[in-house]
């Protein structure tokens, strides 16, 4: 009987996470879903959002995921993210700064490529700010 | 014959050049290691995406109709080449080899008018000088690139292909084999050919022990149509290949530079050795001739008295 799942978080730049966990909550394209051990095989794309890792006896861990896809097997979950960051590695003030920067360059509206890049960067940084702030509140509360 | 002073000055300046090239050799060595590490770090991702792609293609059957990025053109007329070179020189034959490979390809395959997308100043300068059709250029990409730095490049490539502007896109870069061997490579980037998953290119990145996704197991897909997933996977795979090609080129560049600088350091040391020998000989000769002068003078004095 499998009681744990192995979770891997991969990005093009490298492997971010590879451990045995109890449950993972991921931002699927059609809604947030949780994965427990022995989940049916699933292949889906991911949205911008937050990925939550639950382990018994340890505080939950959060990751900011910037889209990608996920493969679920009964004992193994692989997240292939376009970008992924551990919540406690996000610097709130820097994230906020980059959010403002992205917003201002969006307002200027340059070429399409620049525009899409800025839009992407705005989504990403807004998410980072959100996740980092929430984590901050929890640790205070 | 150069004067003693001249030789001394040359020895000094060549010693300095040797010091500079030695320092550059060290810097290149450490940069090479970093680029290699980074290239290796993207392996798990690469392996997994190929795996999922093969799985999806297996499920679907006819490949070329699945997705525009997989569609084989009926006739190849317009071709684009993504040429990856360095911004800086002093790297031996590194840039020259890749550029030669590219121009040879353009000549042989009759794609003289191919659109070029250059990464790195050296390739751009060359192609512009020879009046080639450079449509986009990228330079000053950071030494440790993130995917965000590569995104605009893949954007141009993919958009160009999807809009029908190019029938095929090739990528020219330098494959890093080891410190001494770097191989200029030119291969097809788009359309993606899932059949070639085990081609030489990806072989390097695929872990041997990885269990393949069993085609027998039934997956649930979200969105329901598994081919929709290709929309997500294929552009990423393209970006990944460009990213890896860039890192390979980067590692090659630095190792080529390291070797070039090591040769330069060795030549400098040899030259210093030769010059020191000349210096001593000239010095000895001048002492001898002075001695002869003195002896001759003394002789003349003795005879006069």
What is this structure, in a nutshell?
The complex is a heterodimer of chains A (141) and B (305). Chain A has 141 residues and is of the alpha+beta class.
Class per helix and strand makeup of chain A? alpha+beta
Average pLDDT level of chain B: 84
Oligomer: heterodimer
Count of separate DSSP helical elements of chain B: 7
Number of domains of chain B: 2
What is the count of distinct domains of chain A?
2
Q: Could you say which overall geometry of chain A the principal axes of the C-alpha atoms support?
A: globular
Number of strands of chain B: 6
Largest interface: A-B, 29 and 32 residues
Share of helix among residues of chain A?
25-40%
The total beta strand count of chain A reads 8
Question: Strand-and-helix sequence of chain B, N→C?
Answer: HHEHEHEHEEHEH
Gyration radius over CA of chain B? 29 Å
Largest sheet of chain A: 8 strands, mixed
Overall CATH class of the largest domain in chain B: Alpha Beta
At the fourth level of CATH, the homologous superfamily of the largest domain in chain B is ATP synthase, F1 complex, gamma subunit
Q: Write the element-wise H/E pattern of chain A from the N-terminal end onward.
A: EEEEEEEEHH
What is the end-to-end distance of chain A?
A: 37 Å
Strand composition percent of chain B: 5-15%
């Amino acid at each position: 009987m499998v009681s744990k799942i192995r979770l891997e978080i991969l990005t093009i730049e490298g492997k971010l996470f590879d451990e045995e966990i109890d449950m993972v909550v991921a931002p699927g394209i059609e809604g947030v879903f949780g994965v427990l051990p022995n989940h049916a095989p699933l292949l889906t794309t991911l949205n911008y959002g937050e990925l939550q890792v639950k382990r018994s006896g340890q505080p939950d861990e959060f990751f900011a995921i910037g889209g990608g896809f996920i493969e679920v097997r009964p004992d193994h979950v692989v997240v292939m993210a376009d970008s992924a960051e551990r919540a406690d590695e996000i610097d709130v003030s820097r994230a906020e700064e980059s959010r403002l920067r992205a917003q201002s360059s969006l307002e200027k509206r340059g070429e399409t490529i620049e525009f899409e890049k800025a839009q992407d960067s705005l989504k990403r940084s807004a998410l980072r700010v959100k996740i980092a702030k929430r984590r901050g509140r929890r640790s205070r509360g | 014959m150069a004067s003693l002073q001249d030789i001394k000055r040359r020895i000094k300046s060549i010693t300095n050049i040797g010091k500079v090239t030695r320092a550059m050799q060290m810097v290149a060595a450490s940069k090479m290691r970093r680029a290699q590490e980074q290239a290796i770090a993207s392996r798990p991702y690469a392996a997994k995406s190929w795996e999922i792609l093969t799985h999806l293609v297996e499920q679907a059957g006819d490949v070329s109709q699945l997705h525009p990025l997989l569609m084989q053109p009926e006739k190849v007329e317009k071709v684009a080449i993504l040429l990856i070179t360095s911004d800086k020189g002093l790297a031996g034959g590194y840039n020259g080899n890749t550029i030669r490979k590219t121009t040879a390809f353009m000549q042989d395959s009759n794609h003289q008018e191919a659109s070029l997308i250059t990464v790195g100043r050296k390739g751009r300068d060359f192609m512009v000088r020879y009046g080639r059709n450079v449509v986009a250029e990228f330079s000053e990409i950071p030494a440790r690139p993130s995917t965000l730095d590569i995104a605009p490049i893949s954007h141009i490539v993919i958009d160009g292909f999807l809009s029908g502007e190019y029938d095929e896109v090739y990528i020219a870069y330098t494959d890093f084999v080891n410190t001494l061997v770097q191989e200029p490579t030119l291969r097809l980037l788009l359309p993606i050919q899932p059949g070639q998953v085990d081609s030489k290119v990806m072989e390097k990145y695929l872990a041997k022990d990885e269990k393949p996704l069993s085609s027998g197991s039934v997956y649930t897909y979200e969105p329901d149509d598994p081919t929709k997933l290709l929309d997500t996977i294929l552009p990423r795979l393209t970006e990944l290949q460009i990213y890896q090609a860039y890192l390979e080129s980067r590692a090659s560049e630095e190792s080529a530079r390291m070797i070039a600088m090591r040769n330069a350091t060795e030549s400098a040391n040899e030259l210093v050795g030769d010059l020191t020998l000349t210096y001593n000989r000239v010095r000895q000769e001048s002492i001898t001739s002075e001695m002869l002068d003195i002896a001759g003078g003394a002789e003349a004095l003795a005879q006069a008295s």
